[in-house]
Amino acid sequence: MGSSDQQWTKKTFELNTGAKIPAVGLGTWQSKPNEVRQAVKAALDAGYRHIDTALAYGNEQEVGQGIKDSGVPRSEIWITTKLDNTWHHVVEEGITSSLKSLDTDYVDLYLMHWPSSTNPEDKKKHLPDWDFVKTWAEMQKLPSSGRVRNIGVSNFAIKNLEKLLNDPSCKTVPAVNQVELHPNNPSPKLVDYCKEKGIHATAYSCLGSTNSPLAKDQTLQKIADAKGKSTAQVLLMWGLQRGTSVIPKSVTASRIEGNFQLDGWSLTEEETKSLSSLPDRFKVCGDGWLPVKVFFGDDE
Ligand SMILES: NC(=O)c1ccc[n+]([C@@H]2O[C@H](COP(=O)([O-])OP(=O)(O)OC[C@H]3O[C@@H](n4cnc5c(N)ncnc54)[C@H](OP(=O)(O)O)[C@@H]3O)[C@@H](O)[C@H]2O)c1
């Protein structure tokens, strides 16, 4: 991995189910209405074959339209969507809603968005008689229906993964854990833990998200300048070379194209190391808005 002839835009990572997730996908969180349809089409035109969405983003319908606009056959595209926190006790309704909005018969990957079974009546409260272990028990039933090819989790810290994997009701090891990963939040312990358990890690907010502080990072800028690459391209390469898939979000056609120019070059071990040891730390997605704590500071 990491050799300069690597074709990252064609690369897939094999999941514990045998399925192959394309290494680079398009993120769609915070893409405004009327922007995401054309962004999805632009990405598919540029060669992306992996789109990441969620019921909570409120854009599944537009994502589905963008896919149709592109003319790329459904069978060639990897679609990930996510079960919203207030739908944990109604998993069947959650997937039915997503498939209808996306206007597709199946998704390639269905993730539990957060390990929080939030009460739909009062989002500051957790459901009294439910938790994510029960949600997973329901999600495990989905692949046999053919409407979901793979199931996984998101925002699971080591502590919650342990709780899930050690529960007797857990028969399926999640295929994926989608978590925040970038050089200011590298979570090496979590990445290693996932690897050890056969869970593929997908890096979200891999560019540092909206108004990323990484855009001003001098170490990153120097590496990008020396290689004649954009800071975004270097961040994506850092994620790919540590074995994670990356799902950069953009609604800007030129950036969507640039973020996919990842073939035929690589970062040296020294460059990777210096990016992995930046002194600054920040997390885009905290857990303060949830009724339960889901991050415990033990993943770094
Ligand atoms: N599972 C979860 O809980 C979770 C949480 C967060 C995110 N995600 C997923 O991960 C995806 C990516 O994370 P994210 O949206 O937080 O952030 P991101 O992909 O790290 O960053 C997106 C931001 O970077 C800008 N950008 C993109 N390419 C650029 C480039 N080449 N140069 C300069 N700026 C660039 C985008 O602007 P423009 O769009 O204006 O071009 C946008 O403001 C999400 O969209 C979503 O699909 C999942």
UniProtKB/TrEMBL annotation:
Pfam families, per database record: Aldo_ket_red
Keyword Cytoplasm: yes
Keywords from the UniProt entry: Cytoplasm, Oxidoreductase
Binding site for substrate: 113
GO cellular component, one term: cytoplasm
Source domain of life: Eukaryota
GO biological process per UniProt: alcohol metabolic process; arabinose catabolic process; cellular response to stress; D-xylose catabolic process; ketone metabolic process
Primary location class: cytoplasm
Domain NADP-dependent oxidoreductase: 24-277
GO molecular function annotations of the record: aldose reductase (NADPH) activity
Cellular compartments annotated: Cytoplasm
Annotated active site: 57
Site label Lowers pKa of active site Tyr, positions: 82
Family stated for the protein in its record: Belongs to the aldo/keto reductase family.
Cited PANTHER family: ALDO/KETO REDUCTASE
Protein name: NADP-dependent oxidoreductase domain-containing protein
